[in-house]
Amino acid sequence: MRHTTYAATILLIIGSASFGQEPNEDDKKTLLPPSVFRVVDARSTRESPDTDEDFELSENTRRNLAIEKKLEESASLNYDETEFSEVMSDLVDKLSIDVVLDQTARDDSLAEDEPITFRVTDMPYCHALRLLLRSHNATYMVNSGVLRIISLDVESDPDYFRRKMLDCRNLIQLLIVAEDIVPRKSAEPIVRRQVFAEINAQKLASDMLVEMVKQNVAPNGWDTTDGEGRVKIYGMVMIVTQSDSVLQGIEDFLTDLEYVLRRVVRNKKS
Questions:
Q1: Which has the closest alpha carbon to 254: 213, 225, 226?
Q2: Could you confirm whether domain 59-155 is CATH 3.55.50.30?
Q3: What pLDDT digit, counting tens, does each position of 111-128 carry?
Q4: Alpha helical stretches, state H, 140-225
Q5: Structural contact between residues 35 and 27, judged by C-beta atoms closer than 8 angstroms
Q6: What is the DSSP letter of 164?
Q7: The whole model's pTM is what?
Q8: Where does the chain hold its CATH 3.55.50.30 domain(s)?
């Protein structure tokens, strides 16, 4: 009977959190142990008792993220008829990363002795490098802790895709408020109805977010059109399989989208 009471109270708190109703404090203190309350309390955003320090990313992902962080640093590059092998050495020295020239780029138009003329000032390495390489029909991908320079012709080949997981909790909640998403009615009892309403609203917002990504970032690059890329939201996590440049475009798009949605929600409340 005690477990039944806990379960019913958890469902009630979850449902009330979704609709902006604060659960009765006495009920929470008397019916829920602190460990359970911490999971479902709306003000703690239903955090798990575990902390990030209790888990680790895979070694491959950690190394890739370290390279991506370095590529966000500002760059001032000045090459004048410089052989590409020297350009790669310069990148290795400045960023302390491994750079590999893929055979696809060698076979195309970017051999190690290819002369490079390129100048930029105060631009992130990620953008500067893509600009430099694109003029030679090449681009880069980050995989297995290595910056790999590849031909632009193979960028859309699934063999050169990466998988990335993106936290979409804020965006989904913002979409629910900004779009006034009203979940369809349920014939379930009141407590279960509130829980299902929350899940249903999240599903609608998640589907909307996926569609926005597909329509605004590489619209022809998804498995629902003519491409090979895949994107889906599971729970609050967006899992994307795409080329490096598209992944970067998605992250930029989601960052800008959250900024705009926050302004929309702020204006709705004022």
A1: 213
A2: yes
A3: 999 999 999 999 999 999
A4: 169-178, 190-216
A5: no
A6: E
A7: 0.71
A8: 59-155
